[in-house]
Automatic annotation (TrEMBL):
Gene3D superfamilies: 3.30.530.20, Pleckstrin-homology domain (PH domain)/Phosphotyrosine-binding domain (PTB) (2.30.29.30). Its main location: cytoplasm. Pfam families: PH, START. This is Ceramide transfer protein. Residues 20-114 form the PH domain. PROSITE patterns: PH_DOMAIN (PS50003), START (PS50848). One of its GO terms (biological process) is ER to Golgi ceramide transport. It is found in: Cytoplasm; Endoplasmic reticulum; Golgi apparatus. One of its GO terms (cellular component) is endoplasmic reticulum. The lineage of its organism: Eukaryota, Metazoa, Chordata, Craniata, Vertebrata. Keywords: Coiled coil, Cytoplasm, Endoplasmic reticulum, Golgi apparatus, Lipid transport, Transport. It catalyses: N-hexadecanoylsphing-4-enine(in) = N-hexadecanoylsphing-4-enine(out).
Amino acid sequence: MSDCSSSGSDEELDPEIELLDELGGTLTKWTNYIHGWQDRWIVLKGNILSYYRSADEKEFGCRGSICLGKAVITPHEFDECRFDISVNDSIWYLRAEHPLLRQQWINTIELHKAESGYGSESSLRRHGSLLSLTSAASGLSTTSASSCKKGYSLREKLAEMETFRDILCRQVDTLQKYFDNCADADSKDELHRDKVSEDEEDFPTLRPDGDYLLNNSSKEKLFPVDNLKGPLGIDFKGEAITFKATTAGILSTLSHCIDILVKREESWQRRLDKEIERRKRAEDAYKAALTELKKKPHYGGPDYEEGPNSLINEEEFFDAVEAALDKHDQIEEQSQAERSRASRQISLTPDTCSSISTQKYLTKVYRREVEENGIVLDPLKATHAVRRVTGHEVCHYFWDTAFRNDWETTVESFQVVETLSDKAVIIHQTHKRVWPASQREVLYVSVIRKILSTNENDPDTWLVCNFSVDHDGYPPSARCIRAKINVAMICQTLISPPEGDKEITRDNILCKITYVANVNPGGWAPASVLRAVAKREYPKFLKRFTSYVQEKTSGEAILF
């Protein structure tokens, strides 16, 4: 076995957690406000996370990538399938199909991030060891060269303090040795005195110098003072003088250090004041930027759109929708004016133009407020009257998909899914998105019928009924909210008999329109916003549509 494998170092990798070369899978990624959430093929290789439009398009190159070294992975607080990956100002919003799959992605990404060498335990340990060795070898604080030059006098005095400390330590050791020796000599003296008193008799004792001494003579002469000087050999007076001089030097040096600190305090205070001022300006700039961001009509990320946990409050939501609708109406009015001008110049006479342009519309809207599980389900009824067109013509243009794009300005795309008969079709229709509301789609059956009157005095009735259905070929889309509708356009033609034997012309006919709608928009749009939009848009829709029918039928034969 090689030395590397047998060293047992912290940098060894456990074979059980060895990472694969490349991992890939499908996640839903937030793209932009136009397309919303889209499926993307996500690839994790090393510490690089990349995404492609699909797995089949990998050969064309990735559409974006981020390095996980300093990435922050954040599971969403409310959405159990969503997690965000942020690196500085770049944020990826991702969603898995279910919470378990989301957790697997998070764990795998975190594992690759940890093994990439950024922020791992072994990496921190190696950096710490290097720092410790450097600090121990230098013996100096990790300050810059400029600060070392400015603080030279202070460090010089601190070095003197270190020298004085060593001298004091040696002097204390010397004095302690002197006191210990004195204590030992005193103990020996007491021991010998006790022994002499036990052997007390009246005969002479031989002295150390050869003379005889009686037991009751002076005992102080038994132990000459010279015996105490021998083992010590310490100049106590000199040590005391040196100790005093050393402490005086310490006090002088401390005084000098205090003077230096006082002189530098003003400089430090100015630095502190500048730092405080800098931080205050930074905080003010941050608050100003945040305030400016809140004033903008657009925010970044899917958190600032319609949803159960949207960060946009109801007032901001309403203002954004109203601004978008105003802009859409302005564009549509300009486009409609250009089309009308061109059409009138080609096909209409001046008298007819005057008749149409001065037409007065009377529209009344009735609405009852109904909510179910927090969703607005207000049934609506609108009545309208328009001259010079018949009920059959109004219903024909409302039902026939060949004319849908001419008058319907809210539809982005539609498709006839299935033709049930010559008067019944199934239609899939996707509406334009109005930010921050989510995009809506509807799948419905559209039927046109003529209902004969049972009373000779009452006119016949034409109606178009649109109601939602399900279809195996068009399941609900993840990027749109499937709305449910039940709508009816009911029209009757009233004829004013002409004078004499004159033929009936368009000036003699009037169409009474009753429009009823029961719509379940789904989603999480605020109720006040939905009601305000309905109040504003339904009358405009009827006026726009009936004006279109007038222009299309002008100069043509009457269709009863």
